[in-house]
């Protein structure tokens, strides 16, 4: 079959699958319409005068064709006060996604936007530009790790209705696994949250279909409809435990790694409201000025400059006591790469020079030190888990005597690289705040370098639906949390069992961290609780009273 015919056939199949997905998820699709807006709308990467607008529209008859799409921005929900408008085009080459960098806006203002194609209109969304000048308060909602077959995205729904200036997504927006892998049987069988395609996603069309599935979720659509998003990928948008030249979840039978990673990045840039540089889809690190209050600096600590992760199972060796000196602490091991490290240093210098109060680093993995906890083996013996798992847990807990870190995929696995970052934060940083995702649990740290100097604070956001340490260490929750707090001196607060999101509120005088927890991800009926706020005064580089 000719390649062009194959592409058309694949496209038509994909469009048909999209309509089928919408029907399965309970969305109304008018078959008579010449086009269909299938996945809601979104906005992202706001600046002082512009914002990215996103939607997806497909031909109603399923044929491959180019579509002309109009977009509008207004200062009111009824579009009586038009601010900006224009036209763009889309086609199957970009999976019928639409992205517009809408300019000519005013700083710190809320706007409404919509799209029209062939006489059919999208829903209306809200967005907001970043402020300029003096800023009294700025609120960021922080999210990560939304796994569709693990349960409902109730935390997204809570975020959608929160009073926020922007949403930060720190990665694992989708997961790449096949049906039945890293999923909750209740969510899959009873709630109908089965992934499509059913196989692990490898090719471009696979990644596109998985994004399409996630974007049918009503809670995620509500989040995008109500708030602009600034996002970075972590590993699961690519493949588990990715590094610059490979991944744990990429095997010989799955083709060329470079081809797969290119497909993953292309789908990400198509489906996410990120400001894409057409000549460079590799580097997603970028920065945002929030008036005189803060600089938000988004990093890629997952892929672009990361050396391969160490693993205890293969790297510990016959004498575990030598692991830290011979492997873990090697000075050449890198997490960001020199180009990104140089760029960040320059961003910190610019931020300090212009007098910003806070420097917020939005990145993927925990910076704070989390050591393997010391837990009484008798508690493990009493846990209702198989004996084989008890033995594995005891083996891991034995390493606690050596003061080794729990997670070698985080900054803990790259301690020399972390010290280099801390050197820059101490020299050029002004009230640094690290934000992290990845672990599915809530954390708060007072960051310190190897000499014990205060560097800044960190909050790690809980996962939206992915299970946390309660599944890895199935022990009494109070025991687990207390053991981590006792074993890790930098750790101020930890919640190892609940799903949710984090709220960071910045003012000229202080930063406040609060976690929002949903009671369940397995029911549409849920409650939300908030943690007690943790506050850090400007100039202290640590949480108050912690």
Primary descriptors:
Purple Acid Phosphatase, chain A, domain 2, seven-stranded mixed β-sheet, Metallo-depent_PP-like, 546 residues, Alkaline phosphatase, putative, 24 strands, 2 domains, disordered N terminus, globular, alpha+beta, 14 helices, Phospholipid_Metab_Enz, Immunoglobulin-like
CATH architecture of the largest domain: 4-Layer Sandwich
Mean pLDDT: 94
CATH superfamily of the largest domain: Alkaline phosphatase D (PhoD)
Proportion of beta-strand residues = 15-25%
Q: What value does the Rg take, in angstroms?
A: 23 Å
Please describe the biggest sheet, giving its number of strands, its sense, and whether it closes into a barrel. 7 strands, mixed
User: What is the count of DSSP helices, taking H or I runs of 4+ residues?
Assistant: 14
What is the fold named in CATH at topology level of the largest domain?
Answer: Purple Acid Phosphatase, chain A, domain 2
Helix content: 25-40%
Instruction: Note the gap between the termini.
Output: 67 Å
How would the global form be characterised? globular
Poorly predicted residue ranges = 1-8
- Structural class of the secondary structure composition? alpha+beta
* Whole-number count of domains: 2
CATH class of the largest domain: Alpha Beta
How many strand units? 24
């Amino acid at each position: 079959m000719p390649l062009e015919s194959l592409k058309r056939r694949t496209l038509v199949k994909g469009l048909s699958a999209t309509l089928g997905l919408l029907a399965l998820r309970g969305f109304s699709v008018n078959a008579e319409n010449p086009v269909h807006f299938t996945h809601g709308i979104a906005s992202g990467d706001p600046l002082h005068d512009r914002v990215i607008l996103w939607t997806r529209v497909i031909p109603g008859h399923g044929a491959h064709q180019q579509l002309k799409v109009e977009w509008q921005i207004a200062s009111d929900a009824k579009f009586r006060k038009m601010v900006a408008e224009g036209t763009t085009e889309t086609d199957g080459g970009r999976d019928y996604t639409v992205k517009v960098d809408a300019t000519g806006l005013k700083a710190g203002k809320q706007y409404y936007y919509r799209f029209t194609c062939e006489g059919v209109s999208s829903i209306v969304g809200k967005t907001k530009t970043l402020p300029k000048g003096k800023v009294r308060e700025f609120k960021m909602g922080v999210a990560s790790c939304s796994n569709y077959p693990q349960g409902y995205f109730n935390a997204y729904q809570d975020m959608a209705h929160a009073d926020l200036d922007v949403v930060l997504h720190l990665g694992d927006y989708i997961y790449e696994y096949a049906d039945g892998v890293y999923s909750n049987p209740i969510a899959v069988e009873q709630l109908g949250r089965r992934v499509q395609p059913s196989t692990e996603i490898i090719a471009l069309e696979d990644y596109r279909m998985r994004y399409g599935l996630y974007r049918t979720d009503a809670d995620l659509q509500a989040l995008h409809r109500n708030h602009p998003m600034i996002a970075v990928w972590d590993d699961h948008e690519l493949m588990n435990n990715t590094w610059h030249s490979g991944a744990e979840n990429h095997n010989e039978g799955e083709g060329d790694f470079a081809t797969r990673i290119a497909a993953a990045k292309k789908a990400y840039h198509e489906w996410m409201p990120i400001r894409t540089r057409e000549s460079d889809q590799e580097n997603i690190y970028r920065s945002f000025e929030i008036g005189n209050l803060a600089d938000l600096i988004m990093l890629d600590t997952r892929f672009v400059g990361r050396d391969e992760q160490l693993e205890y199972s293969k790297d510990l060796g016959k004498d575990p006591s030598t692991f830290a000196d011979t492997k873990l602490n090697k000075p050449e091991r890198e997490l960001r790469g020199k180009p990104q490290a140089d760029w960040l240093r320059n961003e910190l210098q610019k931020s300090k020079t212009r007098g910003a109060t806070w420097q917020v680093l939005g990145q993927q993995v925990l910076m704070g030190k989390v050591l393997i906890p010391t837990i009484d083996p008798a508690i493990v013996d009493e846990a209702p888990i198989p004996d084989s798992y008890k033995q594995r847990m005891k083996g891991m807990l034995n390493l606690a005597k050596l003061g080794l870190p729990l997670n070698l995929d985080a900054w803990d696995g790259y301690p020399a690289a972390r010290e280099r970052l801390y050197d820059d934060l101490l020299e050029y940083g002004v009230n640094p705040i690290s934000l992290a995702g990845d672990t599915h649990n809530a954390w708060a740290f007072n960051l310190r370098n190897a000499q014990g100097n205060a560097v800044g604070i960190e909050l790690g956001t809980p996962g939206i639906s992915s299970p946390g340490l309660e599944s890895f260490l199935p022990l009494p929750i109070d025991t687990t949390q207390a053991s981590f707090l006792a074993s890790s001196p930098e750790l101020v607060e930890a919640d190892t069992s609940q799903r949710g999101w984090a709220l960071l509120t910045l003012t000229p005088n202080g930063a406040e961290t609060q976690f929002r927890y949903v009671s369940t991800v397995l029911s549409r009926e849920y409650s939300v609780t908030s943690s007690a706020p943790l506050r850090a005064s400007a100039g202290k580089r640590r949480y108050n009273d912690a």
